[in-house]
Every structure is written in structure tokens, then in C-alpha cells.
Amino acid sequence: MSTLALKNSNSAPGAAEWLRGLLTRIQSYRVYRRTLHELSALSDRDLADLGLRRSILKRVAYQAAYEAN
């Protein structure tokens, strides 16, 4: 079994930060897709009960995934 040894220790923090950012973006995208899928599955009547229209579902899903803190 081989192992990878980094000789330049300065590159490791940058790589770790890049990977962390990538994973965060992937998780946010998954939240967006799941939210959009769940909202799209609702009937027009259910959406109306929530105060939503189909034309704004993408925006609502985007806000849930990327603007929630």
C-alpha cells in the first residue's frame, strides 16, 4: 500500500480549504434540488395554502439552500 506524502506543507491548507468549499457547495446544491423536488411534488392547492406559486419555486428553493444561515 502506498501513501502520499506532501513535501510542501503550504499546499495542504489550501487544498483542504478548497475541498471544504467544494463539499459545502455540493451540500447546498443537494438541499436546493431536494427542496425544489419536494415543492414541485405538491399540488397547486397545497402550494396556495403555503402562499406559493409554481413560478417562484426555484427562487424559494435557492433561498432555502444558499441564503439560509
From TrEMBL:
<dbReference type="InterPro" id="IPR009506">
    <property type="entry name" value="YjiS-like"/>
</dbReference>
<feature type="domain" description="YjiS-like">
    <location>
        <begin position="22"/>
        <end position="55"/>
    </location>
</feature>
<dbReference type="Pfam" id="PF06568">
    <property type="entry name" value="YjiS-like"/>
</dbReference>
<protein>
    <submittedName>
        <fullName>DUF1127 domain-containing protein</fullName>
    </submittedName>
</protein>
